[in-house]
Request: fold
Amino acid sequence: TNVYGSVAKQYLWMTLGNIFDTLDELLDLGELIGQTAGRAHCSEYQAYTAFYERKILPVPTIVVNCGWCCDQGAEVEELCRRLYGYDVTYLDGTNDWEWGSWPNMDERAVEYNANSIKTSVARVKEATGLDITAEIYKTALGEVAQITFGHKTLIDMVSKADPQPISQGDVGLGKLIQGAGTRYPREVIKGINTLIRETKKRIDAGIGVVPKGAPRVYCQTRVLVDQKPMRAIESLGIAIPRMFVDDVHPYEAQPTSYPDDHWKALVEFCFRKPQMSSAEGVLRYWEWVANDQKVDGIIMMHPISCRPFCSPTFMGKDYLEKKTGLPILLVEMDGYDTRNYSAGQIKTRIESFAEVLKANKKMASESN
Reply:
């Protein structure tokens, strides 16, 4: 049996949004299919529903979705299952973490989550004949590791250089491909290596997208379907050494506690990744990046329609102000919808903050 597996919706919004700029009409359509405008529905899933309705996305045999950290994914998948007629299996987990637990999970949570994966793997095999063996898992993990290492090399080059050599708009697509999966891992790795070489040339030539010595800002969330907002922020004379959860926290590199069970090891690894763990993990990651990168300020991009990131962002502003003492700006945005959050609007909301950071940096240099 020939089986094609893909994180299809991510491919589509990456391409239609970032490259062709044609996502808005699909969001309009998704709002008419059970996800009314103005009710904080996830724009990613509004687009996902429209992909089926427009027959852009072929109806699959089976979908693996996750109801772990966001209820909307599972709810919309059930809607689409009934409308378009396919099978669904869900990954599930536990969210009752205690503060102080990150980066470790208790054995009960590991068992529950790993069994959820094993159940879904069995469902996929039953529906398609594809058995996701340990060998397949190992091969895929090796490809992801190479892509991740390449991206890590790139962002380290960008963050250490002054002036910042390339835009975060250029860095962003490389980050997104890590989560999309791909039929073309060799080509992706080759593309990232090409970008690394071109970035090195710009660093050696002293070429930058912002002035040398520009204030450094950490933005904790990306606009995923449009790279123009990042370029707009940089046009204000602000360097962005890090965005989102691009970097690898030292906790993520710890050896697994489950070397003999790759599904348990995967669960543990995922929990150590800040965007997949607890609110504590996310907040402590943001604090670590701000200190590690010695930034002058933080822009908290508040995704109002995103369940997993909405609350931590509000919590994060208060937490980071107390922990770092840095100036912090909270800016409303949406990761998948720029109809009401365009690059121009985001730039306007950040202009005054940029001037404050420049003034702070100038006063600090004069006092020294």
Q: What stands out?
A: Residues 135-367 form a domain with the Rossmann fold fold (CATH 3.40.50.11900). Residues 134-160 form the longest helix (27 residues).
